[in-house]
Amino acid sequence: MNFFELFGLEADYSIDLTSLATTYQALQKTVHPDRFAHSSSQEQMLAVQKSAQINDAYDTLKNPIKRGEYLLQHLGAELPNEQASFQDIEFLMVQMELREMLAQIKFANDIDAALMSAQESLDIQARQLWLEFEQQLAAKSDAANQQAGETLRKLKFYHKLYIELERIEDALFDD
Amino acid sequence: MALLQIAEPGQSTVPHQHRLAAGIDLGTTNSLVASVQSGMPKTLPDANGEDILPSIVSYQSDKVLVGNAAKALAISDPQNTIVSAKRLIGRSLADIQQKYPNLPYTFSGDKAHPTIATVVGDINPVQVSSQILTNLVERATQALGGDLEGVVITVPAYFDDAQRQSTKDAAQLAGVNVLRLLNEPTAAAVAYGLDSGQEGVIAVYDLGGGTFDISVLRLNKGIFEVLSTGGDSALGGDDFDNAIVDYLVSQFNLQRPLSHQLERQLLEQACKAKELLSSQDSVDIDVEHQANTLTLSMTKAQLNALISPLVSKTLRACRRALKDAGVSIEEVQEVVMVGGSTRVPLVREQVGQYFKRLPLTSIDPDKVVAIGAAIQADVLAGNKPDSEMLLLDVTPLSLGLETMGGLVEKVIPRNSTIPVAKAQEFTTFKDGQTAMAVHVLQGERELVEDCRSLARFELRGIPAMTAGAAHIRVTFKVDADGLLSVSAMEKSTGVEAAIEVKPSFGLEDGDIIKMLQESVTHAKDDIQARMLKEQQVEASRVVEGVEAALVVDGERLLSPQERTAIENALQELTKISQSSEIARIEQAIKDVDTITASFAERRMDSSIKTALAGHSVDEV
């Protein structure tokens, strides 16, 4: 049973997250090991397995990037190798600029404004990539799926930038 | 429309029979036991009417004293009287000495397994905790009038794998069945959640004697979903006391090292001053030293200045936990206060200011954890088959592996909902490499040396290939108690190695059996008899469970042949479990397990389908 089936869903990128959460809770109420605390060891082990599988599925489906990757793999697309070198030089240049922008935040006169504007730059560019991703998926072809995988790989760069931004914010707060 | 209800698979069809269960708050400073009686959770007092058992054990040549009796000896006989053993459990000697340099004990044992030298010999922190558990279980057995089916023991959410495993070891040593290890903040949320029946996001701020925990939970229709948890497993009210002691030492111009008695005296005075300053503005402190009385007056403002950095540290952890949960301060509907240290006015003020609301303190902060644990124990023991309550807890710290260059690769990130299983692939570094050292670590930092080492094992027999050609799949599993097991497999050959992660700083395999045999309290206890009883209990659990399953689903999911085969195996098991042959009972249980494996799986899948159907009907 794949993750979509496990949650009674069509294999599709767009998901109602509220309904996903409700299904998740209904499933956990059925299989969680706490429901089997009084059962035989065998049933307890089975419950742990199923419950972990449902947690894994929920964790994957509720996260946009993980869900995208899972769907592409499900559709038979081969995801780009993380270790392979990145061909899009222009994209890498932009990434370097963004990194530099984040590194400069702590030297800004108005730190709050700098944090805000960094967040905005990331948001705008990430949103653009998500749009591309959805268009690529909508094309429903192997070639487009392959491109969608590349787009996700780019989005992961933005995910890392967001984490870096949070880290910078944390460090500024802690001082 | 409400969700359709589904019968619990293990539900008994025999008339309702109340199973005795209790919740135990095994605290750093104080411990309590509580149980649900006639639907109401209550803490259980001892013969003197005291609910609270000080977590102190004194080893004397002729007897072992626990609680208040031991507390009396803490000053006069500090070396044999172990206070706050919870701070030592699952820790290395280096950890302990770095964090608590002035403990009055003489440490023995090796670095990874420190013990305390007492008049009755070397004592492991696990044994100390086990004494406290034994005392509380006896209390509950008497109060409830029968043997306990099992207990829920609470642990700080921030306890790492070694500390959790050691707590479970202590229970095993005490001979109690652990239904579940439950995180303290989650227990507190349960105590409050069931009280108020509310929904939404709540934060639990738990400052105990030795640990600080912050958890952010979402309550929804009986489900307690922990969104994030954070804190510090070595920060608590004791640190407030220590800060005061350090202040006194400098004000009195005392030179360390001081005698154990004087340290203890200072600590007692510091603790008393802290408590008095909760309700008054200044306090006089007197300490007897070399026939002199040292005197000092301390104000609330001075106390606040001493502990303010510690309180700020807790608030930083709160901020991180909210962030991890993806929740803003405004979304938090309630803040629950847990732990005796939340009585300190500065703590309440600062927490109130931070969360912009008055913290909840209506349930006694010393009892709230035990009460929550009792509610969970009652549900787990099967006394409330219709209960909607379910606790979805998370891993407090990330779990990972050492990779080349002393870096840690995270396999299970912190705040993953448990139980969880994750696999990741790794490869060899050198040409012709035929073995791989798997080093399991816990923590958030990137370098191995900054994380906590949990276990090491080796995967051997990898076929010689060029570097990077082997595919080694390492699987991490964390069960519902938060305990980890790790296995590794080379994919092309299927060569496999696995371990239950026995923490580097816990007990070794076989230690428990050895301690049981040596233990004074269990001298009369025949280990064989105990093991037999455990097998018999498991056998009756299996028989009861399968019989109930047959009644509900036998017709629907089994062919007549399958059903007959299962019934025969059950009969055989019932017969053999009357005997006293442990190995035969064990084998008969395995036989039933094997023959019912596919039935159990079919039932699980069928209940998943029903749950999905109930859900989609609900949506239409």
From TrEMBL, chain A:
| Name the record gives this protein | Co-chaperone protein HscB homolog
Q: Does the keyword Chaperone apply?
A: yes
Q: Which InterPro entries match?
A: DnaJ_domain, HscB, HscB_C_sf, HscB_oligo_C, J_dom_sf
- Tell me the SMART domains matching this sequence: DnaJ (SM00271)
Entry function: Co-chaperone involved in the maturation of iron-sulfur cluster-containing proteins. Seems to help targeting proteins to be folded toward HscA.
Q: Which organism is it from?
A: Thalassotalea litorea
* GO BP: [2Fe-2S] cluster assembly; protein complex oligomerization; protein folding
* PROSITE patterns named among the record's database cross-references: DNAJ_2
Automatic annotation (TrEMBL), chain B:
* Keyword presence, rRNA-binding: no
Residue spans making up a coiled coil are: none
- So which domain of life are we looking at? Bacteria
Instruction: State if Transmembrane helix is listed as a keyword.
Output: no
Q: Name one Pfam family in it.
A: HSP70
Family affiliation: Belongs to the heat shock protein 70 family.
State its role.
Chaperone involved in the maturation of iron-sulfur cluster-containing proteins. Has a low intrinsic ATPase activity which is markedly stimulated by HscB.
In Swiss-Prot or TrEMBL terms, this protein is called: Chaperone protein HscA homolog
The scientific name of the source species is: Thalassotalea litorea
